[in-house]
Amino acid sequence: MARIVMKFGGTSMAGTERIRRVANIVRAQAAGGNQVAVVVSAMAGETDRLVNFCREANPLYDPAEYDVVVSSGEQVTSGLLALTLQAMGCKARSWLGWQLPLHTFSAHANARVGDIDADKLVASMEAGEIAVIPGFQGVSDEDRITTMGRGGSDTSAVAIAAAVKADRCDIYTDVDGVYTTDPRIVARARKIPFVSFEEMLELASVGAKVLQTRSVSLAMKHNVRVQVLSSFVDDNAPPADTLPGTMIVSEDEMQEILESKKMERQSVTGIAHDKNEARVVLTRVPDKPGAVADIFTPLGEAGINVDMIIQNVGRDKGETDVTFTVPQAELARAQAMLEDKKDKIGFNRIITDSKVAKISVVGMGMKSHAGVAATMFQALADRGINVQAISTSEIKVSVLIDEDETELAVRVLHTAYGLDAEDPAIEGAA
Ligand code: ADP
Ligand code: ASP
Ligand code: MG
């Protein structure tokens, strides 16, 4: 007998027919003698719809009330799944964030998981009940409902798995694992059976939305065994226990797997893209000590996350251009703040562009392979794709390009690093 947390995403929960399919998968795990807790997302599209309602009601909405509205999608699906399981003769009970309780802290709309009181949940699971938990939501110190940022149900699931000391956390979604890149963009993307926490963390943080970044860091911290797999399976599909999806493993385990299979690590494990960044250029910034601090300190204080930064070599007259990226959603705020500080910083103009995309290649193998960045730049240059900014970490190289060239760039790089599969991954994918 194992204790398993299962998480089902929005596409898997979209409508009563799909919820019935989910209930069947859950019932099979419970019937195998396992203790089961299920974390669910809102139906696909529902959270976007609710976010729009908030914007229409009040463009400068209060995040605490936004949380009241957007958390409701998960309340609906958790109740519906509990009802469907009951209709199948299973014992099932839903547990809202405040009922567990799942404590969160810091900002509304982007809350972080704190303590989870797992006693009631464990008692219910031990009594043979299937616990159904709405993802994405928690409760603040002030007893108000909170949400954990878009894609936050993944983090709910991992946090609950850590709290109940689950043997495994299975993240069921609409693809059957983590691929070398988004299989909806590259039909020849390959499923990766094992990926290390570090690589997955980096991939998620640069846009591979299959797992929320925080869910990966939480899993790494608490050593939760996370598997990504598909909920769109037929009765003959291999059961989750046989690990048909992608397992996220520690670096040590990854080394053992590579050694046992006598495999060498590729330089690049995966490629991700992110269209949610915007580029800001400040022209004719004084080329003197303290100038960049004047730009980035106020942005940092306002909680605006700056990603790529380029300072051009100073031209004559002691002036330089400074280029950087911020999340698109923060662009208006960043721009207003910089205009406000224009005299202090001493720049000439602000030029912004939201039609940019960040393309990143990620891989532990980069540490021991030279020339990874050169391959990237050459492959993009061969297709006439212009690189506007570059940033690197030990296991990642990112470039900023024109948004219209996103799909082309991802495909070209996928081929350049030898990641293409023989057979297309998902039939009908672009
Ligand atoms: P859910 O609603 O189940 O949480 P998401 O839409 O958040 O699902 O995440 C699954 C999607 O992530 C897939 O449909 C796929 O298009 C996208 N994706 C992006 N990068 C990858 C990748 N490297 N591997 C698999 N899926 C990816
Ligand atoms: N429903 C939320 C969202 O769409 C949370 C999630 O699905 O993970 O962002
Ligand atoms: Mg998701």
From TrEMBL:
PROSITE patterns: ACT, ASPARTOKINASE
MF terms (GO), sorted A to Z: aspartate kinase activity
SUPFAM superfamilies assigned: ACT-like, Carbamate kinase-like
ACT domain residues: 280-364
The EC number(s) this enzyme carries: 2.7.2.4
Classification of source organism: Bacteria, Pseudomonadati, Pseudomonadota, Alphaproteobacteria, Sphingomonadales
Enzyme class: transferase
InterPro entries: AceGlu_kinase-like_sf, ACT-like_dom_sf, ACT_Aspartokinase, ACT_dom, AKii-LysC-BS, Asp/Glu/Uridylate_kinase, Asp_kin_monofn, Asp_kinase
Species of provenance: Aurantiacibacter gilvus
Entry protein name: Aspartokinase
Pfam families xref list: AA_kinase, ACT, ACT_9
